Amino acid sequence: MNILAIETSTPASSVALGTDQALLAMSLQVDRRGHVGFLTPAMEYCFQQVGWTPAELDAVVVDIGPGLFTGIRAGLAAAQGVAAATGAQLLGLSSLDALAYRAATGHRMIWPVVDVRRQEVATAPYRPVPGGVIKEGAPETVGPEGFAAMLDASVEDVLVVGDYQSLPEGALRGLHRAKVGRPRWPSADVLLELAVARMAKGDLPSVEDVRPLYLREPDVTINWKDYREEAEWPDQP
User: Which of 28, 53, 110, 134 could form a disulfide with 126 if both were Cys (CB 3.0 to 4.6 A apart)?
Assistant: First the structure.
């Protein structure tokens, strides 16, 4: 099974190619605004390294968020384009799932965080189990004080991973049950691993079900109500 993985939900964009047995090639770049310019050269590089053509793909997996709006849109558009052109199976996975899966812990509850701007992070609780993690709550966006309160209310030791550095300095100070750890960013090689496990279970979504997970409205939207009041709409032919 040949798989292309695309990760662009955070400043750390990555592309990976692999099989259900091994990672074969990967390209990584950290740039909050460089997702679009990174993707095509990165995919071309990985295909050259492995010696495949896109037509040889069986599946394309992409991070659908939460994360940066522009990055999510860029990655999803690229994944949809490759899948449509090749007939490969399209899968969407969460950035929080990828962070929690790779977190280094044996017993602590895992709270991955992704910076979604506006001084908020996206997060959800995960419990480590043999071979992976289980999500124990729905993902949500919270501010620094709200996130600290969630951790403080935990009756278990917790591990915070992901971009916790986006929180204000001292936001997690005084939380005796909480420690911080790696990884900071989700990555394409982890998406590849998760995709293999998901496909082995036969959990294959339709193309229409692979949608972005934003959790809130975009930073910039068009005020259509005021636009209609201030400007005359042209007559329709």
Answer: 110
Is CATH 3.40.50.1000 correct for 97-180?
no
CA distance 30 to 78: 18
Question: 127-134 long-range CB contacts below 8 Å, 24 or more apart?
Answer: 128/103, 132/101, 132/197, 133/97, 133/100, 133/101, 133/103
The DSSP bridge pattern shows strands 2-7 and 12-19 to be antiparallel
Grade residue 49 by pLDDT with cuts at 50, 70 and 90.
very high
Residues linked to residue 29 through DSSP beta bridges, in sequence order: 13
Q: Is 9 exposed, middle or buried (0-12, 13-18, 19+ CB in 10 A)?
A: buried
Domain extents in the chain: 2-94+186-209, 97-180
pTM, rounded to two decimals: 0.89
pLDDT tens, 53-81?
Answer: 999 999 999 999 999 999 999 999 999 99
Intrachain domains 2-94+186-209 and 97-180 with the same fold = yes
Find out if CATH 2.130.10.10 is the number for domain 2-94+186-209: no
Q: Which residue has the tokens 């911080």?
A: 180
Chain centroid offset of residue 19 CA: 20
